[in-house]
Design goal:
5% of the residues lie in helices and 31% in strands. It is mainly β and 746 residues long.
Length: 746
């Protein structure tokens, strides 16, 4: 359409000038404009053009020397006898002047010519040499279209614009250097230049237009400048020899089909500023092996990576930004390595993620996932060797983070040898059960490990557990090969150790010693099976049936002054030595089954005690609990209410703890002290909450703080700045940032 417009415009220009005087000079025909002092080359006399043609800068008419400024459209069109031409610098327009001169081999353009006009040398099949002046600033649309013998072009540094289709279908053009003044490569500029193997792009290039290099099947390498922002639709489509691309970090958009059909493309890199990869951008890139998706990327549109049948590695760079993945991506890719460190990956169709997982199960070897959709079900993956599941902080404001690993999600993966799990609340039942080669296990920020989660992981030799852990369910690590007892030294939040959770694969295996933190509320059946000696640190509340193994335990240390509640079905085989705190021997000796030990010894121990084991607080009142209960140890403290909703708040420096309650009554507090070196001790304290009728003043400083506001029934009604709360009139409690205030909203 653009080409047609220019041709029509040229025709109208010639028609308007047809009233001018015609004349001939040295074999060429002209239209004279004496008043303007110019003339237009209109054509040639029969037989006047044969071989080389020099068009003069002036033509004489009636004694007037007229400047040759225009060669009319079609003036030499289809002149098959013309082999070379020398054009004057006086020209300002010669649109379509030499179109179809199929024998034209060489062209010389002279100073001070600024523009090669529209379709000037289009379809000059024999043109192989063109000399351009340093004054040239523009090459017009379709100027050298279908010049199939043109092998190389030296463009002057002054050149600023190359219009659409300028070198389209120049099938012999093998190399070209584009001057730095060019800021954009326009539509179809080099389309189907099938011999173009190398191109040097301008240093100031901003955009590459639609189909600019489409079909350049010999192009093997291209270096993009650090100014490029846009690669437009199908810009490099069908560049079947292109093997590697390094995108500049300035690039923001790879548009529709930009590299579609680049069948030799193996690797893409860089482009950390890319925001959108549009539809079909890398469609049918059948040799593409690995991709790194940058942190600024926000959209991978439909089929962007469809039919990438060699793609084995996908890596999402870490970012807080959400990225949306469109339909029909990666389905045909035999992925062996999938890594996502993005916090929020959104699938247009969540079901497609499940399809991908099923497709990748036979090939996947390494897996890092942080998005819920890709958690799917990887059980039975035959080649999966390395798996990392990355959960995230709940305060990130998105919903795609992984809170839990579903039951049996990675069960029965025979080659799985390494697992890392971070920031996940719960590992479900049987999640990794039946992974016989699992040897390396790193867990962090986990709260609950489900029943049989790592059962039958026979190769597991070492186990460290995070300080966030609260529950280890039944048989969680049953049938392991642990060389030493599981490391529980920092588990100051641990409340429950389930039945047979550490029972070894080989029943003859023995650990030298195991220490159970005092934070534990309940120790279940055979919980510490395999230990020759054990320490139950101060604070353990209850020990269930056969929790202390029936095999010989030579030494058991219990730090509770009062014997913990314990099932009678313990210590069947007359264990040897029980060590208890000073002054408590008689209590143990008179209590079954503690009395079954052959020897009960007393020992001086470092124990936790409180100056006040019961305190009273006013309803809604902030109380420094450390100061109120007066613990004797200068350790770290973790305080919570295991049996109620009594709220504990940490002050900014994490040394003082603030308790509050919205209801009156008595509440139990668990005071857990830990030194960071393996000692965890706990005691209980009773808090009585009494009525507080007063209403505290709200200061200007308080109004701007982030708080949570509860009604008098304990329901959360608002979270945010107090002065931005929009609540119905009534009585509320504002809690947060070291404040607890009763407020009235009128």
């Amino acid at each position: 359409m653009k080409k047609l417009f220019f041709l029509i415009a040229t025709f109208v220009f010639s028609f308007m000038d047809i009233a001018a005087q015609e004349f001939a000079y040295d074999g060429l025909k002209y239209y004279a404009s004496v008043e303007a002092g110019t003339c237009v080359v209109a054509g040639y006399e029969e037989g006047a053009v044969n071989g080389h043609l020099v068009i003069p800068s002036e033509a004489v008419y009636n004694g007037h020397a007229l400047a040759v400024t225009i060669i009319d459209a079609g003036a030499f069109s289809s002149c098959t006898s013309l082999t070379s031409v020398d054009l004057p610098g006086s020209l300002i327009d010669f649109s379509a002047a030499f179109d179809g001169c199929t024998s034209l081999e060489s062209v010389k353009l002279n100073e001070p010519l600024k523009k090669i006009s529209v379709s000037a040398f289009s379809n000059c099949y024999a043109l192989s040499s063109i000399e351009m002046p340093e004054s040239l600033t523009e090459i017009g649309m379709v100027a050298f279209n279908h010049c199939t013998s043109l092998t190389s072009v030296k463009l002057p540094e002054s050149l600023e614009i190359i219009e659409d289709w300028a070198f389209a279908y120049c099938s012999s053009l093998s190399n070209i250097t584009l001057p730095d003044n060019i800021s954009q490569i326009n539509e179809c500029c080099f389309i189907e230049c099938t011999s173009l193997a190398e191109i040097s792009l301008p240093a100031n290039l901003v955009s590459i237009g639609n189909e600019a290099f489409a079909g350049c099947s010999s192009l093997k390498q291209i270096n993009f400048p650090n100014t490029l922002e846009l690669i437009d639709t199908e810009a490099f489509a069908g560049c079947s020899s292109l093997k590697q691309i390094n995108f500049p970090n300035t690039l923001e958009l790879i548009d529709t089909g930009a590299f579609a059909g680049c069948s030799s493309l193996e690797q893409i890199s860089g482009g950390f500023g890319i925001k959108t990869i549009s539809d079909y951008a890398f469609y049918n890139c059948s040799s593409l092996q690995e991709i790194m998706l940058p942190s600024n990327l926000q959209n991978i549109n439909r089929s962007a990576f469809q039919n990438c049948t060699s793609l084995y590695s996908i890596y999402f760079e870490r970012s807080d930004l959400p990225v949306t993945i469109g339909y029909d991506n990666f389905k045909e890719s035999p992925i062996t390595r999938y890594i996502e460190e993005r916090k929020n990956i959104i699938w247009r169709d969540p079901k497609e993620a499940d399809i991908l997982i099923e497709n990748w199960k036979p090939t996947i070897k390494a897996l890092v996932i942080s998005s819920k959709n890709m958690l799917g079900n990887w059980s039975g993956s035959p080649n999966l060797n390395d798996a990392s599941i990355m959960g995230w902080d709940y305060n990130t404001g998105h919903d795609d983070y992984i809170r839990s690993i579903p039951d049996a999600n990675f069960a029965s993966c025979p080659q799985l040898s390494r697992v890392e799990i971070f920031g996940v609340d719960t590992i479900g039942a049987n999640a990794f059960a039946g992974c016989p080669n699992l040897e390396i296990l790193n867990l962090d920020n986990i709260e609950v490990i489900g029943a049989a989660a790592f059962a039958d992981c026979f190769a597991l030799k070492n186990l460290g557990l995070p300080n966030t852990l609260k529950r280890i369910e039944d048989m969680a690590f049953a049938l392991n090969s642990l060389e030493s007892a599981p490391n529980l030294t920092n588990c100051f939040r641990l409340e429950y150790i389930g039945t047979n959770c550490f029972i070894p694969y080989n029943s003859s295996m023995r650990w030298e010693e195991i220490s159970i933190p005092g934070s534990v509320l309940y120790l279940a059946r055979d919980a510490i099976f395999g230990a020759e000696s054990a320490t139950l640190q101060q604070g353990i509340r209850e020990i269930g049936e056969s929790a202390i193994p029936y095999i010989d335990i030579e030494n058991l240390t219990v730090e509770n002054i009062i014997p913990p509640i314990i099932s009678e079905y313990n210590f069947f085989d007359s264990p040897q030595i029980l060590t208890v705190p000073e002054g408590s021997r008689e209590a143990y000796a008179s209590t079954a089954p503690w009395c079954n030990f052959k020897e009960i010894r007393e020992e001086k121990m470092t124990l936790l005690s409180l100056g006040n084991d019961s305190i009273s607080v006013k309803q809604g009142e902030a109380v420094n609990l450390i100061e109120a209960i007066k613990p004797n140890l200068d350790w770290n403290y973790y305080i919570y209410s295991p049996d109620s909703e009594f709220e504990i708040q940490y002050d900014y420096d994490n040394t003082a703890y603030w308790g509050s309650s919205l209801q009156q009554g008595k509440f139990s507090l668990r005071i857990v002290a830990y030194d960071g070196y393996g000692q965890v001790k706990a005691v209980d304290c009773i808090v009585t909450v009494i009525e507080n009728a007063g209403v505290e003043n709200i200061t200007t400083d308080t109004l701007t703080k982030q708080v949570r506001i509860y009604d008098i029934n304990g329901m959360l009604r608002y979270s945010g700045k107090l002065d931005e709360a929009n609540l119905a009139p009534g009585l509320y409690i504002a809690i947060g940032n070291g404040i607890t205030k009763k407020i009235i909203i009128k």
